[in-house]
Amino acid sequence: MSTADISTDGVSICVNCGKEGANNICNKCKQVKYCNAVCKKVHKKKHKKDCEEHVRLAAEHAARLHEEKLFKPPPPQLGDCPICFLLLPTLDSGRIYMSCCGKVLCCGCAYAPIYDNQGNKVDNDKQNQCPFCRVEAPISDEEANKRIMRLVEKNDAEACYNLGIYYARRINGFSQDYNKALGLWHRAGKLGYTSAYLCIGNAYNNGHGVEVDKKEAEHYYELAAIGGSATARFNLGVHEYHMCNINRALRHLLIAVGAGDNDSLEHIKDLYSNGHATKDDYMKALQLYQKYLGEIKSAQRDKAAATHERYRYY
Length: 314
What we know:
Elements: E1 6-8, E2 11-13, E3 24-25, E4 33-34, H1 37-42, H2 44-70, E5 95-97, E6 104-106, H3 107-110, E7 114-115, E8 121-122, H4 124-127, H5 141-153, H6 157-169, H7 178-190, H8 195-206, H9 214-227, H10 230-242, H11 246-258, H12 262-273, H13 279-296, H14 299-307
Antiparallel strand pairs: 1-2, 3-4, 5-6, 7-8
Helix pairs in contact: 5-6, 6-7, 7-8, 8-9, 9-10, 10-11, 11-12, 11-13, 12-13
């Protein structure tokens, strides 16, 4: 009798004795059923070869699906600025999270003049208002923390991520607590903010709050990269390079360059100089980076970066 899962009109049949109502499935391949443990044991030798083949094919199929998902062009991680509707910059200095409304604004909109309902310019530095919701900026860390906590209670993904950063880095009066940070990052990741998985990967890579586990670190870097994190993609590219997997390294780095990661562009430049990448690889990287710059540049952002050096966005 074949070791394929035999059924008649939806009734499972034991592959050993042929009785109906079999519900004792093979624990390894999950492909065949038996009526009881005795039949499973009797049929073990006959099924062994087919079982190993089923397991091998299933593993290969899972690996192919994972590769397709890992190297599929990711969506923009941050989306557009809700005021100017231009793609938000990858650099942290090019965007600002507003704890009043939970919006992420680009540096150009956050520090450009705003207008009142009469159409007159308002000096935002003096008014000190959020350009999106017009709420006054917090005047103390305590007030800012209360706003973050309110957004966390509302399951705001980036608020969870930021609060995790506060705990990890002892920012805004929070004591260092990696357990709370990791819990918040897991929560943020499940809510869709994939940069949180980058932080979890870093924790496993460096042993912050958890035992060092390079395999777990790679797993979370992959989750972050699939979600659009250019930094996580860069980390994977560097890892593959150190493993001498040059082609995989280049694939990761090129995706990261397309998402605006300048470190990846420089790494590809080094690979080209060392003969590990072709001229075409480097030219493609330059083109991808120029395309990214074209999507994020604006006169307003240039002005903000020129006026406030810390607001550089590329």
